[in-house]
Amino acid sequence: MYETRQLKDKIEIIDGLIECPVLGCTNKLAKMKKKDVHSDEDRFKCIDNGITFSGTTWYYRSWQQNILWNADILAERILGKKAESRMNHDNSEDALTWNVFRGLQYSGTLESILEEICGIKVTVQHVFYWSTSADMGEGCRLLTMARDAFEARNGQQTEPDLIIVTDKILFVIEAKFVSNNTRINLETMQPSVLERHRKKCQNYETCGNNWFNEVFANNVHAVDIRRYELMRMWLLGSWMARESNRGFCLVNLVLHGKEVVAEKAFRNQIQEIPLNLDNGRKFVRYEWEGIYSAIKGRPGTYAKRLVCYFESKSSGYSFNRSRGRLKHAFQVE
Ligand SMILES: [Zn+2]
Questions:
Q1: How far is the CA of 2 from the centre of ligand 1 (A)?
Q2: Are 143 and 206 members of one domain?
Q3: Partner of 205 for a Cys bridge, out of 28, 69, 212, 332, CB 3.0 to 4.6 A?
């Protein structure tokens, strides 16, 4: 993967062509239009550096180039079962999630991060990436049960980025990088789509013996909840926690300063219980940068590599206000 120090601080568009972002490279590439996104055409590729450049971000020839460690495990145990993956994209939140959490597992810092997030000391038992354990290759049985209770087998099913089962608390982590939480807009939905959406929401409210009423605020209906992903994670996650006699913590992992409004809106729609009480459940908005601060200065190669990753990760180029400027992904020093 390319680190910020290997990339140009500023790129120019010259005669309709755009500079390759890699430092020292003089190749000029065709500028992608919206319709070309995900294109594999040679005119968007820098042959020398093995990337396809959209003008703001790029993707690698192979997704392994975007992975810090254990690409073999990821390929063998997880990717085949995962619904969709764009791990080769520099902006991939899946690649970011894997790189950071697999690194936390290896550096022995995952438990201290979880304690930092929820305020309770926990012992990690299983970590499921997109519902599969990277260590055992097995699926998450609790999630299968929850899907069976709330969702049709042939329909779209909920797939948390991470489920971390500990001795006391079950964590569901919804990770966001450059994109925001999915937000439903009923006003702009086609009537037929809206109808389907209402039906699904109705299901979520009534399945699992009306578990919805237990964990959402009074008078809130599923269809009124704009953050549809968070709604499903909160519903299924809290149900899984209850089934396994654990507390529940839903973590919305976001970039510094992002999703503050979403946090407030969503928190108003749910019922939380302090985690030190029985059946405790809590929603936490946490920043990637918090993970960085917590591991900075930790000994060991894995922790050091991860710190370096945070410091050197880019999130592409911005053409909005700052014409063609390289963006640092994280606000870290
Ligand atoms: Zn190049």
A1: 11
A2: yes
A3: 212
